[in-house]
Amino acid sequence: MRFIKMHGIGNDYVYVNGFAERVDAPAALxxxxxxxxxxVGGDGLILVLPPETGAAxxxxxxxxxxxxxxxxxxxNGIRCVCKLAHDHGISHAxxxxxxxxxxxxxxRYQTNGNGKVSLVTVDMGEPILVPAxxxxxxxxxxxxxxxxxxxxxxxxxxxxxxxxxxxxxxPRMTCVSMGNPHATFYVKDVAKVPLEHVGPVIExxxxxxxxxxxxxxxxxxxxxxxxxxxxxxxxxxxxxxxGASAVCVSGVLTNRTDRKILAHLPGGDLTLExxxxxxxxxxxxxxEVFEGEWxx
Length: 296
Prior knowledge:
Blueprint: E1 2-8, E2 11-17, H1 26-33, E3 44-49, E4 59-65, E5 70-71, H2 75-87, E6 96-100, E7 103-111, E8 117-123, E9 147-148, H3 163-167, E10 170-177, E11 181-186, H4 195-203, E12 213-221, E13 224-231, E14 235-237, H5 241-253, E15 260-265, E16 268-274, E17 280-285, E18 287-293
Parallel strand pairs: 2-3, 4-6, 11-12, 13-15
Antiparallel strand pairs: 1-2, 1-18, 3-4, 4-5, 6-7, 7-8, 8-17, 9-10, 10-11, 12-13, 13-14, 15-16, 16-17
């Protein structure tokens, strides 16, 4: 099976061109091929497939986390799907329409001097704020915005009791779905968050029936933030495009940031804009690393 290793600002996946290759058990393949010691290595597996019958799309994307669970969407991943489809001759449509678990999304892209896709803007669609649709098990509220977590989320003894003070945590969360669920927390120093300890506790908490992606955000100004992410099913990742989109929305809802922001992630930068028509635009690069053959 031929594969292509790609990444969007460090959020890396193994990609398979499903127009030419067949993968019968992607959920079983993902943990094996994504293993960073014995496999190709990556945050998961993404298949680029023909769209389903009746879908008004050029290609279809299926995304599997490193633990084999399937997610609805990946913002960094879909930029690479666009690049793969264009650069490998599947589709030259611009804008390109890609079918995902979130629906069909529209992408606009720029090419470099070699005719390869270099920068992609994704219309991430409208944020979902109704708690039951995120989903988050908090009733009686139209939105979960700056909702206190004290008494809701308890952390085990293995997590230092002082971590909230160390990083300057504002102990409130804002929950947004961008087709997949996100919880955003604000801190004074994002580097001091013990993400490897608190991330999995929040991800798997009973408040979140489909688990959740966890983001800690440090605000520098109304137009600039730095964020770190614990991704559902993958752990700490260098970037999360849907998460950055959710952070953009969360910042507006909590009056911390403008509708257009520059987000610094460990792997690089993304530009986000929550447009007046309620859609979120995400702009960032897409990079192909190498091609190979999987023989297992």
